[in-house]
Amino acid sequence: MATVNIIAASGGKAGTVDLDPALFESRIRNHLFHAEVRRQLTRRRAGTHATKNRAAVSGGGIKPWKQKGTGRARQGTIRAPQWSGGGVVFGPTPRDYEHKLTKKMRSAALVSALSLRNKEGAVVIADALALAEYKTKAGKALLAALGVADKSVLLVTASAQPQLERSLRNLPGVDVIRAEGLNVYDVLRHEKLVIAKDALAALGARLGQAAEGRAQRAAGSRSTKGEAGE
Fold first, then answer.
1. Could you give the CA distance from residue 90 to residue 94 in angstroms, rounded to a whole number?
2. Torsion angle of alpha carbons 113, 119, 121, 127, nearest 10°?
3. Where in the chain is the domain with CATH 3.40.1370.10?
4. Are strands 123-126 and 13-18 parallel, antiparallel or unpaired?
5. What distance in Å separates the CA atoms of residue 20 and residue 24, rounded to the nearest whole number?
6. 217-222 long-range contacts, CB within 8 A, separation 24+
7. pLDDT at position 189, please?
8. Are 194 and 158 spatial neighbours (Cβ–Cβ below 8 Å)?
């Protein structure tokens, strides 16, 4: 079990905390990163692109000219694709790009991402993440006190912090997210992960039970293989 220092909002050490090994010391599964990030990004696609085929364009109710005797190629309708303003052949149609994953895979991917950041030493535990006023200057001072100034950083809070969120939204590479919305894509695209002390409990309630179940199953599988080898 890893023990890390808690950083006060004013700077300096404010105690220590033990990180749950089920969340921060799990096996890193790179293939789940790809699957989960793909799922998140495809969900953002609207999929509303569309073109009109020959049945949807207007006009063309009669034959442009008679079938024979004009010397020109026979034509049945001006809605045909070869005509200007005619229908599009095999054009894009509205569709859903969503790529689905099971809940177990999604939670395992997030636990893997947290474990990766912890292994890299990129996890910072803050005593509190809150501001009393709407000021970018105060937000910069908080980041400097936490030792993550001028870095790409994701701050995780337990509940809504409107002053903090609005004060930091103009800083490039800095994002604030609540524990209930923490996701793999945001964790991986930031260098540092700052988690409020009270947000750890929220993450544990959200992911802890599933992570413990995976750890127990893995331990059982290893013991079964060991017995089989004997």
1. 12
2. 60
3. 3-45+99-229
4. unpaired
5. 6
6. 218/27
7. 96
8. no
Strand, helix or coil at 44? Answer: coil
pTM of the model: 0.79
Query: What digits encode the pLDDT tens for the residues 117-156?
Result: 999 999 999 998 999 999 999 999 999 999 999 899 999 9
CATH class belonging to 3-45+99-229: alpha beta
Per-residue pLDDT tens for 56-66?
999 888 999 99
- Separation between Cα atoms, residue 106 and residue 98, nearest integer Å: 14
Backbone conformation region of residue 146, classed left if phi is above 0, alpha if psi is from -120 to 50, else beta? alpha
Quick: pLDDT tens for 22-52. Answer: 999 999 999 999 999 999 999 999 999 999 9
